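Dear colleague,

As promised, here are the two records you asked about, laid out in our usual form so they can be pasted straight into your sheet.

NAME FIELD: protein one
SEQUENCE, THEN STRUCTURE:
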Amino acid sequence: MNKTKTLKNVLFIMTLFFSITLSAQSEPEVLKNWTALEEAEFHYDVSYSIVKCSTTSKATVLINAFNEDGTNPKVGFTLNFSDDNSNTAQVVITPFSSNLGDMFIANCNSDAHSNLKFECPENIDLASVKVEITYQTAL
């Protein structure tokens, strides 16, 4: 009985240590906190964050998209990046299905919503990055 209790305690501690280690490894380094972009006239919200998903990865843009209205079955957008050095870049997110109340949040640890996760344009200075959005809809 004592061996069983000891074994259970050891397994519990190992499981706890393993989950803490996994959690620590999966936290991205935030380079730019979540920033809201201009809301669409049809009540569609988009925000972005720039992170490093791992110590060896390049800067990655994560998008959060929220459909407050639901009137457009497919929504996409063009993101125009710029910085204080007059560098520019453009990323197009093709229209994707989006219903009333849908929220799509890209993250480092999942391929879900991979259309909303991409490498930050390399020519853009993260210290002064600005992003403007233009929405597109499709039927």
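NAME FIELD: protein two
SEQUENCE, THEN STRUCTURE:
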Amino acid sequence: MVTSVEQWFAGFLLSLDRFQKKLAEFMLGRYLEHDFGSNSGGGGETTLVPQVLLDVVDGTPRITLHHVITWMDLARDQEPNEYRLAVILAFAEAGITVEAYVRLDLERDLGEWPAGVHLPYRRHAEGLGLDDALIFVEARVEEMCRRYDDVARLGLVRRD
């Protein structure tokens, strides 16, 4: 017989899997929709990496839903450019801390974005119970998956 703790944990993991898949689908769409420099003529590399990271930072267990597109125009960039979506859940005695963000780390000016690190979207909540944390994460994932303008503002060529 499955205990209620096992059922709860299975439900928690299924929710995280659903959020991970939604972020992965969104990022795959952006990856396929735009030329991130691999066809720029100067040679380049482009990668899409979806990950679920489990780690402990300063004694606090964390789960990170992490999606990043990195690209580099070998003729113009010294380091890769990054377009990243992440949701971090940190579990402490005082409750769950959740941070969700969109981050652009640009080696050079691209479209409307100047070179540098940009956080066009960031939401943070602390002291949440598990149910509230999952509700918060679901709402943030929905918001991040409606942020089509971040990539469009990079001035990248849309693929046909």
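A couple of things worth noting about protein two: The chain has three helices and seven strands. The mean pLDDT is 89.

Best,
R.
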